[in-house]
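Hey,
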Amino acid sequence: MNLDPIFKSAQEAFLHYKNVSGKEKATFLRKIAEGLEAEKHLLIPTASEESNLPEGRITGELGRTVGQIRLFADLVEEGSWVEAVIDHADPERVPAPKPDIRRFLTALGPVVVFGASNFPLAFSTAGGDTISALAAGCPVIYKAHPAHPETSRLVGQVIHKAAIDAALPISVFNHVEGGIEVGQALAKHPQAKAVAFTGSFVGGKALFDAANQRKEPIPVFAEMGSVNPIIALKERLGNNMESLAKQFVSSLTLGAGQFCTNPGLIMVPALHAEDFSDAVKKELEQIAAAPMLHEGIAEAYYNALAILQERKELDWVQVAAAKDLIKAYPALARIKAADWLEDEHFQQEVFGSFALMVVYEHFNELYAIAQRLHGQLTITLWGDEKELAKKVDLINQLEEKCGRLLFKGVPTGVEVGHAMQHGGPYPSTTDSRFTSVGAYAIKRFARPIAFQDMPHELLPDALREENPLGIWRMMDGELKR
């Protein structure tokens, strides 16, 4: 596939689109949201058929998708996200005059976005990566996921129509289909300025390596999943055994375990290990096998379980009832903390409704586990207030290992808002400084630029003295509107 014409048109669109006002970008984004809602009669059954996800789940996902689009529309319309900073000149300063310097965030350029398999709407064609890039002022070259091609085409048509209705170049969004070779070529194209990816570690790392081997390396914002450990402390677990078992199993089996925040690892004190195992098994026995996204994912799930079943360190609380070409039967194994600490293989994610229960004898073992953990999207710490007050060292250690630390509930269910952080230390993502969910996702696709002594009539609106946008700005070290 010759990608040059696509990138050429995207670059031409960028030179116009980056200077479009926040209000105009907001109008464009809202038209996308309105278009998706208008086409839901086609989108919902199509996405359900292609993904094996129930229509109720797709309906909820559509709501989340349009909600996050409108969040970014509001963000860019208000405008303060550009972090405008003004340091006024002082020609009388000694020993040297001070120049006028003004700084803000500007769009990177054409961005390559890869769709995710497990969210045909919210993390795909008009998902958070695409929308945050468009909000920042970057045209998108979107690589459709082969698991739901028709859904992607329908959404792509909605985005193109929204661009036309908003009087924007249609090449602000480009829809591309193909396999691994096309994906590699997109990441390596000299006019690509960034890559956004949600998926497996293997896929994300391959794109990261390709982008860093370019003549001009570019950032790759890859969200590659994690095992999202839950750590249960003695008092909290002992006093809430049944409710916590129910919460855990509900989260573990949600969507057949096909979430990047699926809790695939849980640490339990030895004192309560048997009772908690029994409570979890009781809940698991009530969970029916659920269809996975496609046969390839189901096969990978059962292959991973087969490898683990050969390990003598594991005691199986529940074995997957049977191998199915498409459905995932939930499974749970137990291991001693001392054995878990000996082998990093036990930290590998199994994409599906499987979890490993690590039984620890004392706090020193638990702290050693916290030190050994790989980078995670989330870590959940179940403890009463008095317990937590005594575990400050543990909390401090866990902060270094995740992007979101929970003290209630379970990690599945990622709120889309201003404070959300969906990204963590490697290998959960390639850059822990950023999020792929929430308002701050826009910062991935912008870079700072400073203008020194620029004539006032040439300044962008965000940096003009009269502040025509009415945004919050840092002026001579003081935040003002």
